[in-house]
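User: My instructor asked us to take a sequence, write out its structure as tokens, and then describe one feature of it. I'm not sure where to start. Here is the sequence I was given:
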Amino acid sequence: MNRRHCATAAITLVCALALLTSTGQASAAPVPEPSPSSSSAAPGGPPQRYSNAELEKVRAQIETLYRKAGAATDAYNLAEEQTKKQSGEIVKLAKAIVDGQARIAELKDRAGAQAREQYRNGGLPPGAQLALSNDPKLFLDGINQVRQGQQASKSLLAELNQTQQDLETYTQDASANWEKLEANRVKQAKAKKKINAQIKAAEKLESQLEKKERDRLRQLEQDAADAAQTAWLSSGAIKDVSGEASEAGAAAVAFATAQIGKPYVWGAEGPGSYDCSGLTSQAWLAAKRPIPRTSQEQWRLLPRIDIQDMRPGDLIIYHADASHVGMYVGDGTIVHAPRPGRNVTLAGAGSMKILGVVRPDK
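Assistant: Let's start with the prediction itself. The structure tokens for your sequence are:
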């Protein structure tokens, strides 16, 4: 028995090590070793451990990790939304099943009452004795009562059969929805694990830097965003953009900009924190125009427009996988929740790779 336990423990350890060293695991790549030439001192200042080129590599690694975390966040949010939907469907079906069972019990009671009445009448349905009368009026009344009784019995049986069929359908639907619910919970768990792994890897990379290096890294991030924005504006992308916000769009912009300064938290929909699509979906909900929860669903389901036609309140979708979204507020600017460790802020609309623009109130 002890030998078996030892073998099991050994296998578990090997599997754990394999998981940690697998290429699919999100782990923080080591910060590049400082090159010999990068330790030269700046005039009047201490030597730099890392050149800008080396820090740029770190910046690219961190950005990639956060991008992957953003995509996983979208998967998590979609699974969560679907889980809520399936839970609601199961609640509705459970109520329908209870109501159906109560209705079947009532119909069976009515059928039993009819059977007992016939038994008391010697097996004859109501009105049958009158139909045997020699009195023409009583005879006709009896015939009518027999017909009415037969029709009522048929209706009762038909309703009972239909209710039983409905009940069976509700039960099957509830079972199917439960399976979907469990599948979505599995998706959520996997996405959550991936999100946390990517974020921890990015944070580990940044933690290996000293404060001055982190400050320089932050400046490199801003420089890269500014360069992308300048190139986008110089291309004439928004030269003719002059649309005015609709009433709903203005309300959405007002809500979104009021959240500036609140932290990014993945999966959050406010009021104290947001992720990127949590901010845009809540802003449009405040404008009384509910939209899909995730940036990928916003891109897939909302009407698309040309950049030249955009106006404040429109949503700009970023990256090839539609994993980020910001709200256009005018003058080439968006309001968005950037990533973990950052707050809701204004940014250049062209500071990231634009996939396209959608309009929630088109």
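For the description part of your assignment, you could build on this observation: The first strand starts at residue 304 and ends at 305. Try explaining in your own words what that tells you about the chain.
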